[in-house]
Amino acid sequence: MNNIDAYMKTAVEWINAATELLKTAWAQPNAPEMLGGALLAFLILVAIRKFRKFRRPIKLFDNRAGVVEVSHKALDELVQSVCYSLGALNRPDVKIYTHRGRLCMNVSLKLESGQKLTDATSEVQSALTSAFREHLGVEKLGRIDVRVTGFKGLIYKPTTKFLPPAPDYRDDDVILSDDNTLFNTGEDPKKDSQDK
User: Fold this and answer.
1) Which residues is 70 bridged to in the sheet?
2) Fold (topology level) of 71-152
3) How far out from the chain centre does Cα 163 lie?
4) pLDDT of the residue at 63
5) What does the alpha-carbon distance between residue 37 and residue 43 come to, in Å, rounded to a whole number?
6) What's residue 14's pLDDT?
7) Number of Cβ atoms within 10 Å of the Cβ of 104
8) pLDDT of 127-175, one tens digit each?
9) Which of 94, 118, 126, 98 is nearest to 107 (CA)?
10) CA angle 30–34–38, rounded 5-degree value
11) pTM
12) Which of 7, 53, 77, 105 has its CA 20 to 30 A from that of 129?
């Protein structure tokens, strides 16, 4: 119990000392600008490190001759060609990363309507697994997560037309005749034709 009290007392002292240091630093002239500049520089360094890590090729394996690495662009193109061959309707969004020494990927794509989701996604996963093993020799594959972002096309084609069929009029039916005019302008069309 005494050890816990000693640790708590030490932690409180450290927190108080850090608070006093921050108060003293903030009271200095131009402190907000300097702290803002330091924070901005830290964020820029983190962004540069993330960008370099993203642009760095992925190490696939070692052999007797040396290290084999593949760029993210090459892996992205391989995933896209596999997805297009399986009927993807848009350019798949691919995120490739390594986790515990295994190559993992997230693939987002649109599928054609009418495909069964479980069959389509398992087909994409198995095709990507075989493509990476056959073309790149990658044996340490991790998760292949497939996210469907939408469907294109009609699921069911309509069996009946939306509009009813047009009625079939015969030649001897008279739809509009001189006797059945809807609008009467006050002039007699028979009389006009006789005058001429």
Assistant:
1) 58
2) Alpha-Beta Plaits (3.30.70)
3) 38
4) 77
5) 10
6) 94
7) 15
8) 999 988 888 877 778 899 999 888 776 666 556 555 566 666 555 555 5
9) 94
10) 170
11) 0.52
12) 53
Domain range summary for the chain, segments of one domain joined by +: 2-55, 71-152
CB-based contact 86:127 (threshold 8 Å): yes
Question: 57-114 pLDDT, tens per residue?
Answer: 777 777 788 887 888 888 888 888 888 888 777 788 888 888 887 888 899 988 877 7
